[in-house]
């Protein structure tokens, strides 16, 4: 079965600054280059290039504990070494991982390792007409978003459209989406990895038999 990760910023975003990267990209000469780099990791538009990524992440505020997965500014996705190990076990060599130090503003390193991850794999399985979705009127086939509230569980998927050997992916046509297989989510929980909250999508076959 398919799990939909709840990527609402209020639940999974932790402010981390990238001052070193800002110095390199936040200027008129490289502005467009910086935007394209952000689009790569935020939207999975393409594979990221190491030179485009932050060399260090600086936590906006101190925390007693850190989750194994969170998003930062501009949709950057960060996972712990433990989370990376599980993802790599299921999708070996498929996704991009870039190790990066995570520090406090005083320069104290937060125990890791930590990785920026770019999930560039896309699959198309959501049955739009049976799911609660928001469509962009200007680009209905390419720019959409769906509700990912883990209490409503209102996404229907056709598992026949999925490749059985891919366990983490973005849903094609839906911005900001992250999905995973039942087996991979179970493995994350078994390993004690505090990953993104998720819920099981409804299988189209189950809807059609009712």
Q: How would you summarize what this structure contains?
A:
The protein has 6 helices and 16 strands.
SSE topology sketch:
Blueprint: E1 2-5, H1 9-12, E2 16-17, H2 19-25, H3 31-43, E3 57-59, E4 69-71, E5 77-80, H4 81-90, E6 96-99, E7 102-103, E8 114-118, E9 122-123, E10 133-135, E11 144-146, E12 156-157, E13 168-171, E14 179-181, H5 182-190, E15 198-200, E16 202-203, H6 204-208
Parallel strand pairs: 3-7, 9-13, 12-16
Antiparallel strand pairs: 1-14, 1-15, 2-3, 4-5, 5-8, 6-8, 10-11, 13-14
Descriptive report:
- This protein has 210 residues and is α+β, with helices and mostly antiparallel strands.
- It folds into two domains: 12-118, no CATH class; 122-208, no CATH class.
- 23% of the residues lie in helices and 23% in strands.
- It has six helices and 16 strands.
- The chain has helices at residues 9-12, 19-25, 31-43, 81-90, 182-190, 204-208; strands at residues 2-5, 16-17, 57-59, 69-71, 77-80, 96-99, 102-103, 114-118, 122-123, 133-135, 144-146, 156-157, 168-171, 179-181, 198-200, 202-203.
- The strands form five sheets. A five-stranded mixed beta sheet has the order 9-13-14-1-15. Strands 4-5-8-6 form a four-stranded antiparallel beta sheet. A three-stranded mixed beta sheet has the order 2-3-7, with no helix packed on it.
- The longest helix is centred in the first third of the chain and has 13 residues, at 31-43.
- The protein is globular.
- The two termini are 18 Å apart.
């Amino acid at each position: 079965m398919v799990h939909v990760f709840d990527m609402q910023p209020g639940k999974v975003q932790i402010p981390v600054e990238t001052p070193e990267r800002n110095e390199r990209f936040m200027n008129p000469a490289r502005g467009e280059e910086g935007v394209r780099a952000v689009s790569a990791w935020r939207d999975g538009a393409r594979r990221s290039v190491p030179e485009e990524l932050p060399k260090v992440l600086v936590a906006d505020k101190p925390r007693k504990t850190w989750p194994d997965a969170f998003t930062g500014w501009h949709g950057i996705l960060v996972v712990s070494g433990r989370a990376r190990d599980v993802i790599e076990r299921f999708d070996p060599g498929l996704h991009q991982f870039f190790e990066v130090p995570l520090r406090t503003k005083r320069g104290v390193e937060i125990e890791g390792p930590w990785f920026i991850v770019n999930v560039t794999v896309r699959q198309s399985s959501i049955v739009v007409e049976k799911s609660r979705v928001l469509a962009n009127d200007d680009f209905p086939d390419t720019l959409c978003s769906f509700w990912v509230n883990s209490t409503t569980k209102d996404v229907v998927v056709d598992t026949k459209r999925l490749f059985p050997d891919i366990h983490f992916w973005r849903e094609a046509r839906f911005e900001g989406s992250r999905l995973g297989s039942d087996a991979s989510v179970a493995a994350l929980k078994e390993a004690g990895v505090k990953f993104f909250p998720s819920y099981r999508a409804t299988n189209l076959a189950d809807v059609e038999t009712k």
